[in-house]
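User: Assemble these into one structure.

Assistant: Restating your components, then the assembled model:
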Amino acid sequence: MPQILKDTEVVSDNWIVLDESAESLPTGDILLSYEQWQNFADQLSNHSGSLGVWLEGHAEIEQLIEPLLDLPLIAINFPKFADGRGFSSARLIRERYNYSGELRAIGGFIRDQLYLLKRCGFNAFQFSDENELSDAAESLKDFSENYQVSVDQKKPLFRRR
Amino acid sequence: MYRYDNYDQKIVDERVAQFRDQTERYLAGKIAEEEFLPLRLQNGLYVQRLAPMLRIAVPYGMLSSNQVRKLAHIARVYDKGYVHFTTRQNVQLNWPALEEVPDILAELASVEMHAIQTSGNCIRNTTTDQFAGVAVDEIEDPRPWCELIRQWSTLHPEFAFLPRKFKIAVCGSEEDRAAFLLHDIGLQLVKNAQGELGFEVFVGGGLGRTPIIGSSIRKFLPKQHLLSYLDAIVRVYNRYGNRDNKYKARIKILVKAWTPEVFAKRVEEEWANIKDGPSTLTDSEVARVSSFFTAPAYQDIDSIIADQSLTAQATENNAFSRWLERNTERQKQAGYRSVTLSLKPAGVAPGDVTDAQLETIADLSDQYAFGELRATHNQNVVLTDVLYSDLFDLWQKAKQSGLATPTIGTINDMICCPGGDYCSLANAKSIPVAEAIQRKFSDLDYVYDLGDLELNISGCMNACGHHHIGHIGILGVDKKGKEWYQIQLGGSANKNASLGKVLGPSLSRDEITDGIEKLLDVYVENRIADESFLNTYQRIGIDKFKERVYASNS
C-alpha cells in the first residue's frame, strides 16, 4: 500500500485516486477530481466508502468549496512546485471556511516546502516520488518560530514576544 | 538601528541550518538541479558567468560598523577581497564557493545579518531613503515600518512561490529618495486631516522590460492595518498573477490588465475578510520597533558658530569645499551633516569596495557617526550625524582611502549594474562604459558645471542599473553577438517620476562616450541660468539632442 506523510508520521494510504477515464466508482475510499465529483453526483450518496475531492491550486475556492466542507479529505494539486497558488488556497480553506478534515498536498511539491505547506494548513503530504518519507518528515521541523500568523499559529510573533 | 532579540536570532540561525542541510543534500545528489535553484535563490545564491554570486540582505540599507567589519572579513576569507553595493541597498559577493555559502551565512548570522529572500520569486528586501531619520523634509521615519515589513515578509508561509519577484519601498519624506513609485508596492507615509499616521498605497510600479509607474490604490491606510493590507495585495497577486510567461508575471502586468481600479477593488474585498484580525499592529509593537530608531546622543550645538568654522575651513581648502558641497547634506538636527562616502572613483566598478575600505568605513562610522551607516540605492555609503567640527578630519581620512571622490549627484556618480563582466543575464558590459565616461569627464570643474545629473547604466533590459529612470539612461543590447548601447533621455525617479525616451539607434562601445558628450553640449548650449539637465530636456524636448548625436552619421 502506498505511503504518505500525515501530520508527522509515515502512514499507509488507503485512498484511491479515481482514474481520469473511470466510468463508475470502485469500492473503497475514493479521491475524485472536482469535475468527477460533479459528474458522479448521483452515485455518491450510495457509495459505501469515504469520499474526498482534489482541487487544482488555482481553483476559485470561494465559488466551489462550500459543498465540500463536510468531506473527510480535500486535496490540492501542485502542478509544479514553483506554482505557489496552492498555499493561498489552503489558507482560505482552513481560515475562511474553517475546514477541519484532512487537507492533503498532492502533485509536484517538494520536501523543502513542507514546513511552509504545514503552516498554510496542510496536514497530509502525498509525494509523487515516495522515497525516503521519514527523511522528508525532518523538513517539517525546519523552524521553531515564525513572525506571521498562520493556520497553526493564530497569533503573530509580535503578540507573543 | 534594530537589534535582534532571541526570536529574531533563532529564526535566522534556523534558516542557516536549513540552507546548510539543503546544500549538503544538493551536493550529495539528493536534490535535483531545478529544485535546488529556487531554494538557493531564496537565499540569494546565483550561479553566474564566472562563479556563484551571493547577495546579502541589508534591510532598508542600515548597517552597523560591526556588521561592516564582518563583511570585510567575509570578503577577505571567502572571496577576493571586495564586495559590491547594489541598487537595492544590498551587498553582493562575486566569488564565493557554493560549499562555503552555509559558513558565510553562519558568519552573517553572528552579526544579525542574512541573505534571506534576496532573490527568487518572493518578497525581497524592503528599501527606503538613505537619509531616514535625519532628512530635513521627513514626515515620519520610515525605518520602523520597514522593519515591521521585514519581519512580516521574512519566511512568509504563503508567499514564497509568487509568480515573480516582489519589491516594496517606503518613502517617509516630501522628496522621494527611494524610487518608491517604481516598486511592486510603494508606500508613502502620510498624515490625514486628524493628524493620524498612515500610508498612501501604490502598486504595480517597476522597471525591467515593461517599465511602469505605480498607481495609487488607497489614499489613506491607517497604520495599524499595514500588514493585513499587504497580505491582501500579495494574496491577490499570488492567486491571479500570470504564471505562464515570466516576462508578464510581475504585479504591474496584472494591475495594468485589470486596471488599478479593479485591482484596488479586489484587494479591498480580500482585505475585508482579514482586516482587524490578529495581524493588526498593536501600539506596543509599533513602539517597540520604533524604540530602536531613536535619536543618538546629539550634542547641543551652536549652529551659527559651527557654520562659521566650517565656512572658514572650506574657504581655506578648495578640495574640501568641493567635497562639502557635493558629498554632504544638511540634517534636521542642527550642527550635524550626513556624509556620502563615494564608491565611484574612476577605474573601479561603481559600488565596489575592498575589505580594507570596508574597515575604514567601519572605523569612520565608529569615530564620527555613532557606529551606524547606510547603503544607498545609488551604490554609495552614507554616514549620518557627523558633527560639523568633525567633517574636515573625516574628509581627510576618507580621501586617503579613496572614499571621498567629490562627485555625488553628478554624471560620474552613475548607477551601474555588474553587467556582462559578471552577470549571466547581461547582453553587454556596463562597467567599462561607466569607466570610459568617468575618464572622459574627469575635469571636475566641467562636472560641477553640469550640476545634478543622473546617469544610469544597465547591461540588459532587466534594468538592474535603473536606466529607465536616469536623466541619461544607457541600456546594453546585443546585436548579432556585438555589444551596442541604446541611450534614453528624461527619466526621473522623483515624485513626478518619468520614464526615459529612447533617443534613437544604439551606439557602439566606441561611440558611446562621444555621444554622451554631444548630449551634454546640447544641454550646456540650451540651458537657461542654472537649469538642470533634466529640466532643460523637459523644456526643449528630445529632437535637438537627437539631431546632434546622429548628425555625423547621416
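The mean pLDDT of chain B is 95.
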